[in-house]
Write a structure and sequence with these properties.
The complex is a heterodimer.
Chain A lengths: L1 H12 L2 H20 L4 H51 L9 H14 L4 H7 L8 H16 L7 H17 L9 H8 L6 H4 L11 E7 L3 E8 L14 E8 L1 E7 L24 E4 L3 E4 L4 E5 L6 E8 L17 E4 L4 E4 L10
Chain B lengths: L17 H9 L5 E2 H11 L8 H13 L3 E6 L11 E6 L1 H27 L1
Antiparallel strand pairs in B: 1-3, 2-3
The chains are: A alpha+beta, B mainly alpha.
Chain lengths: ~350, ~120
């Protein structure tokens, strides 16, 4: 019973890194005393004394390894803040480029933030102070906004993907809109690393017709996912002055590209009215393929396979205006702050924030 | 304060305390676990240096975090230890260098004092 009491107390009172070895040593001392035929009361007192010493060691180590670094991190954060203010005036873009390393750092930081406060979380990053402090601050701001709205879980996927979109927009808006041609647009969107786990949230099939779920929208760009059940299709249309990039996420997309002169009559502009079906030669695209639609060029999409099809769309210019949107409170998650040049995260209202 | 020539590139905060040095010395010849260290240090000092558990484990963690010693878990004597592993510690090359430097420093100080006595 005494052994069980000590073991149970140790789970709460002894610092985890030394728990295993210190308790083992304690029982080994006790065994020796027993072998030397030490009276039981003395053994009991010695065991208790040693246990108190182990607790003392735990307190010392806890302060040295957990509390003291926290205080140091807090001090270094203040110093870093001062340094960055000075540096910001000289190099406004330093550390703001979203590299794969920065994404990995943001993920590590989000993971740490689930357990610790900002100061200790920053301390736990590999390089402290982190060179990706800009993104870490953005992270903190999003988490803070979420917490103000009562969402305490940290949505790493949404945060990371909002940064990816933010990075795309920064590049896209660096040039005047009329200078963004099809090639330039392709170069920007082809390697945008939105994650499958994130995109999957926007997949929603509807037996009636294909459905669009908006991921984000700014004055220049709309990003959305379209879910197609077998047999569903968009009819022939063009997008006016907007550029469109379509990436196949999963399934098989049958696609027609039509110049205005290639079909009888004009290619209609997209809208609420039902257009005609084009029956010319088509191309089939599979997961990972990217299709670009230039300004004024007609196109048509169909899911002629027996499997579901999911496509990701980047629309530079006005977004589609029709009745295929499936916009609900659980999908509009990212809000672009034009003046600040970054996204804020609006968590879904439902209680199924994924991680 | 005089120059710390024999200490090489070591900065003062890296120097072990007397207790830490005693622990490291006990690990020079062979790896030892916690209570074994306590016994060896106690015996070597004729019972004058008694290390309690409250001092031992923090000292071991500090030495390990500074790279002077390394630890390895062992499943020895598990029945007596009620399923808890033993943690064996050994001095690293860096630790040995620190001990050598400390010894060299002591030697230099001793020589300095002897020379001073001859002059005066």
């Amino acid at each position: 019973m005494f052994v069980q009491l000590i073991e149970n107390a140790a789970k709460f009172l002894v610092y985890e890194p030394i728990r295993d070895e210190s308790l083992g040593d304690l029982w080994e001392i006790d065994y020796r005393l027993k072998a030397e035929q030490t009276p039981k009361p003395i053994r009991l007192v010695k065991a208790l004394w040693n246990f108190l010493q182990i607790i003392r060691a735990s307190v010392i180590l806890f302060f040295e390894e957990q509390i003291f670094p926290l205080i140091q991190a807090s001090r270094s954060r203040d110093n870093l803040g001062r340094d960055l203010t000075a540096n910001d005036t000289n190099s406004s873009l330093q550390g703001k480029v979203l590299t794969p390393e920065a994404i990995a750092e943001v993920r590590r930081y989000c993971k740490a933030r689930r357990l610790y406060n900002p100061a200790l979380s920053r301390r736990l990053l590999n390089d402290s102070p982190t060179p990706y402090i800009y993104w870490i601050r953005q992270c903190d701001r999003i988490i803070e906004q979420c917490q103000k709205r009562g969402h305490n879980s940290i949505d790493t996927e949404a945060i990371v993907n909002s940064f990816i979109l933010s990075n795309l927009l920064r590049k896209l808006e660096a040039a005047p809109p009329h200078q963004v041609n099809l090639e330039a647009f392709k170069a920007l969107v082809q390697d945008v690393p939105l994650t499958d786990a994130f995109l999957e949230r926007y997949v929603a099939f509807d037996r009636q017709s294909y459905g669009r779920q908006l991921i984000c929208r700014t004055w220049s760009l709309a990003v959305y996912v379209i879910s197609w059940m077998p047999g569903q299709e968009s009819w022939l249309h063009h997008h006016g002055h907007a550029l469109d990039a379509i990436k196949v996420i999963r399934g098989e997309m049958t696609h027609w590209t039509v110049s205005p002169g290639d079909c009888e009559g004009d290619v209609p502009f997209e809208g609420f009215s039902r257009s005609k079906r084009y029956e010319g030669p088509a191309q089939v695209f599979t997961a990972g393929d990217l299709v670009l639609i230039d300004r004024g060029v007609g196109h048509q999409i169909s899911n002629r396979s027996s499997e579901n099809l999911v496509t990701l769309h980047f629309r530079f210019g006005h977004p589609p205006e029709d009745n295929h949107w499936r916009t609900t409170s659980d999908t509009e998650m990212l809000v672009w702050k034009q003046t600040e040049g970054c996204f804020d995260l609006l968590p879904p209202d439902r209680d199924c924030v994924l991680h | 304060m005089g120059k710390l020539g024999p200490m090489g590139n070591l900065k003062p905060p890296s120097l072990p305390t007397v207790l830490e040095e005693a622990i490291m010395l006990s690990l020079l010849e062979r790896p030892r676990f916690g209570q074994n260290i306590v016994e060896v240090v106690s015996a070597a000092s004729n019972g004058t240096c008694q290390i309690s558990c409250g001092t031992l484990y923090p000292a071991l963690r500090r030495l390990e975090s500074r790279g002077f010693i390394r630890s390895e878990k062992s499943e020895a004597n598990l029945v007596v230890r009620r399923g808890h592993n033993r943690c064996y510690y050994a001095v690293t090359d860096q630790g040995r260098e620190v001990l050598n430097n400390l010894e060299a420093m002591r030697h230099q100080i001793k020589k300095y004092d002897e020379a001073l006595e001859v002059v005066t």
